[in-house]
Design goal:
The chain is an alpha+beta fold and 359 residues long. It has 13 helices and 7 strands. The chain has helices at residues 3-7, 15-30, 35-57, 66-75, 81-102, 114-135, 143-146, 162-172, 181-190, 217-222, 264-283, 298-306, 336-356; strands at residues 149-153, 195-200, 205-215, 245-256, 286-295, 310-314, 320-325. A 7-stranded mixed beta sheet has the order 1-2-3-4-5-7-6. Strand 2 (195-200) and strand 3 form a beta hairpin. The radius of gyration is 25 Å and the shape is elongated.
């Protein structure tokens, strides 16, 4: 059911939801007349919905602030990624609105823009629709329809944002196998193109990333051993993409924020970004000849197998080492750019076959 049908439905059975619609209608009536008050009223609606979800699914929350309530809803996977981002967005805007209402400083006049309130309005409609579908047991997958994502390549990534990458890894991996932040920064300084990230443009958060290390031949061979430890990679054995070359690549991590893992667009954006990056390298006569990966979960194994990587051994820490030849191309990717990459690699293999056979 779309938002218009929900708002115009005269037969709401849920009394709490009726009161939310009443508050929403009041918000609509004042939002253009009093911008700051509009933001405050939107925040009030968000707080009521968030606390109701918390009470219904977790327990009492009288002594918990709104931010912690929203974080708990995300952590317990009661809300999806896009709703989390929009709840935080409206909460922050409402805080600004309240600050301006309480301030006597003339310099704060007109700081809140009508555009802010309109974006808040659209986000609020989505939250109301989401809550309506929860109480009617008819949730649609809103993630892929509403999430807005952007690829950030390593060379365009501020090194300070590696802390987000580190926290993402901690949210997915066992703490014993998370690469320390100081090592990530050392890798980044050596070659920032190791990282490809996806950002949610609404929340301005990194919600997924790929890290892949171009390695010397000897170091790459180590990635195929059962005692391989990526934290022990010598920095001098990490290559850069400065000159035409045939390179062997170790796929270190593919991570998506747990609350975004149902959003297939995040995975698609990551893989499309990676394919685009490989195409750009190929245009500079830089080719990946082999790819290895250490899959530490069933999901990791499925990702490796989806691009035709083959399991070669199980490590002494119970992960699985995968490998695939890129030249000649034995990998597959379903996207149009992936097909383009495969054809390009096939053409180059035919040109350089004699040289490649010596690598």
């Amino acid at each position: 059911m779309n938002i218009e049908n929900i708002l115009n439905n005269p037969d709401f059975k849920n009394e709490f939801f009726k009161s939310i619609i009443k508050e929403y209608n009041f918000f609509v009536s004042i939002k253009d007349l009093d911008l700051e008050m509009g933001l405050v009223r939107a925040r009030r609606i968000v707080e009521r919905i968030a606390r109701k979800l918390f009470i219904d699914n977790i327990g009492p929350c009288d002594k918990i602030n709104l931010h912690e309530v929203i974080e708990s809803l995300k952590r317990e996977k009661i809300i999806n990624a896009i709703i989390y981002a929009k709840l935080i967005f409206i909460k922050e805007l409402g805080n600004y609105g309240a600050h301006f209402l309480d301030s006597n400083d003339v310099n704060t006049i007109d700081v809140v823009l009508k555009e802010d309130v309109e974006i808040c309005h659209q986000s609020l409609q989505l939250i109301i629709k989401y809550y309506y579908e929860i109480i009617n047991n008819s949730q649609d997958d809103l993630l892929n329809n509403d999430i807005k994502l952007e690829v950030i390549y390593g060379r365009n990534l501020n090194i300070e944002r590696l802390s987000e990458v580190f926290e993402l890894a901690r949210s997915v991996y066992d703490k014993n196998i998370v690469i320390p932040l100081d090592i990530l920064k050392i890798w980044f300084k050596r070659n920032p193109d190791i990282f490809i990230c996806v950002e949610d443009t609404q929340s301005k958060r990194i919600v997924g990333y790929i890290s892949a290390l171009p390695l010397t031949n000897d170091e790459f061979k180590n990635t195929l051993k059962d005692d391989f430890d990526e934290t022990k990679i010598c920095i001098d054995n990490i290559l850069t993409y400065k000159m035409p070359d045939f390179i062997k690549l170790y796929l270190c991590s593919i991570v998506v924020d747990p609350v975004y893992q149902k959003a297939t667009l995040v995975y698609k954006k990551l893989f499309d970004g990676a394919i685009e990056f490989l195409l750009k390298l190929a245009e500079r006569d830089i080719f990946i000849v082999e790819l290895s990966a250490d899959a530490v979960s069933k999901d990791g194994e499925r990702i490796c197998e989806s691009i035709s990587m083959k399991k070669v051994l199980v490590t002494n820490h119970n992960s699985s080492i995968y490998h695939v030849n890129m030249l000649p191309p034995t990998f597959r990717t379903p996207s149009s750019n992936g097909v383009k990459l495969t054809r390009f690699y096939k053409k180059k293999y035919d040109e350089y076959k004699d040289i490649l056979d010596l690598l």
